[in-house]
What does this fold into?
Amino acid sequence: MGAALNMIYNHYLASYNSRRLTRFDAHKRSELRNVYNSMVKINRDAPWYLPASPQAQQYAVELKESARNLHNTIACLGGLEENGLFDQKSAYSSDPEFVSASYTGPHSPKETVPEFDVEVFSLASPQKNQGLFLEDTKVSLAPGSYSIDIGIGEMSYEFQFALDGTETNGQLQERLARLINSSAVGIRASLAQSDSRTSLQLVSETTGVPSGRPRIFQVSDDHTSKMPGTVAYLGLNNMVGEASDATISVNGSRKSSSSNQMTLEGFFDILLKKVTPIEKPVHIGLKTDTESLTDNITQLMDGYNAFIRAVSSLQSAQTKSLQLMHELEDIASDYSSLMEPAGLSLTDDGTVSVERELLHQTAARTQDAAQTFGFIKNFCNRLLRKSSQISLNPMKYVEKKVVAYKNPGHSFVSPYSPGSYSGMMFNGYC
It folds into this structure.
């Protein structure tokens, strides 16, 4: 029974990787209640259909997650507020090749936003383990069930696999790399090659010196539930690169950080990319209102285009996604005549191209951004409503076999449909 549960758990880990979360993925209890009530209301009049196939379920999950990403893009740009999209500030970096920056402070700060000079002396680095370089010959381990443990902080993850005696070293390394990467435990696995030999590399996703521990992660098979021997055979616990902290100077004050991404006094989120030249700091500050407005509209269209491409890429799996594509194109076409003078053009594939120079000129000439770009706010509102509809009921765009339609006027809630829908293991589901 335990082995069966472990197989199921690993299957879901491999199928649904973790997604990037934002502050808009946290919700109050009342908001969660509203989500559930909306799902029940939709289900009241929904027809009965056969359970969706695993492929259709994964399609529904991907569609829902793509809609969530679009919603969060609009929300992060201030699209949930009346004039937030037009008031949202934008950061600049004098040399984004070394340090990039984004503004994370209030939309309309009451105080003067400080500026910063940042020097980078060293970057935060991850832990790197380098396995033995082996020829692609038959594995020397005996056939059987093996497992390895990867300990990260207080957590320990066990990875099980079986050998039947026909595998080569390269096949074993590739299998372990896929198993570790699909589990999303915070370790990236890859294969390195030297001449005709390959080695399995393990690199931590986190950086910085771990607190109270010599390593970020440990690899062993001394106390696993299956046969040991894999760690020594592949050399997986051989650390060749220690984790280190980043050291920087902010306005002349020296600091250290376990991450290359950090916040400056709650106003800027910066990402360290390279060590800066000696005595040549990178200046971080706010862009002008015109540049900020241009950036916000450009990022909004980038988020919309990413959603369009995601839906389009799913057409091979679900032809009913064409219906969603047409609905999105209808929304955008309603504003195409207003978009073109501002440098926004609807293309044949449904995306919106941005002529940044014309957009910038339009933003610079306007005296009232809310009035000039009011159509952008209306466009955002319709996209928000559509993304919410998709998140609540992605099964609308899934091909399914209907068993029976409910009696109009006498419909009722099926207690099992919401459970089936919510049981698709939505990562980051609100």
About this structure: Residues 1-18, 425-430 have pLDDT under 50 and may be disordered.
